[in-house]
Amino acid sequence: TREWSRAAMEAPVVVAGMDRHLELREWTKRLEAERAERERQVFLTDIGDRLAEHRRQVAAVPFTVPEPFHFSEAGHKEDKRLARLREELRLRDQEELTFQPNAHRRAATHAAAGY
């Protein structure tokens, strides 16, 4: 038999291909984790957890809390201003209308003439 020295026995053992084996094993674990994440997103495998969390949030505030509101006075002022402008335009148009038809006189004339 051969005698081994203590230094040779305590030295690290180099196994050919061990680094590649560990690298491939890590790569496989990473691919499996990515696949599981895609499945979780696509097939909603964790929907129960999501629903439970949603129920906890909804239970905290069971209804919409109304907040005080204020009507804007700007809209009313604008409406009043527009109404005033429309009335002014209508009155100005009325002043420009000077034509007065003779419809009533003609009807009276025709009735008197026996038409």
Folded structure, characterized:
By secondary structure, the protein is mainly alpha-helical. It is 70% helix and 0% strand. The chain has helices at residues 6-10, 18-43, 47-60, 73-96, 103-113. The longest helix has 26 residues, at 18-43. The protein is rod-shaped and about 155 Å long. The protein starts with 5 loop residues before the first helix and ends with a helix. The model has no long low-confidence stretch (mean pLDDT 80).
Question: What is the overall pLDDT average?
Answer: 80
Shape: rod-shaped
**Number of helices, where a helix is a run of at least 4 consecutive DSSP H or I residues:** 5
Order of helices and strands: HHHHH
Strand share of the residues?
under 5%
Class from helix and strand fractions? mainly alpha
Please tally the β strands and state the result: 0
- Tell me the distance between the termini: 152 Å
**Spatial extent as radius of gyration:** 47 Å
Structure summarized in a few sentences:
This protein is mostly helical.
Features:
115 residues, mainly alpha, 5 helices, 0% strand
Present the secondary structure layout.
Layout (H helix, E strand, L loop, with lengths): L5 H5 L7 H26 L3 H14 L12 H24 L6 H11 L2
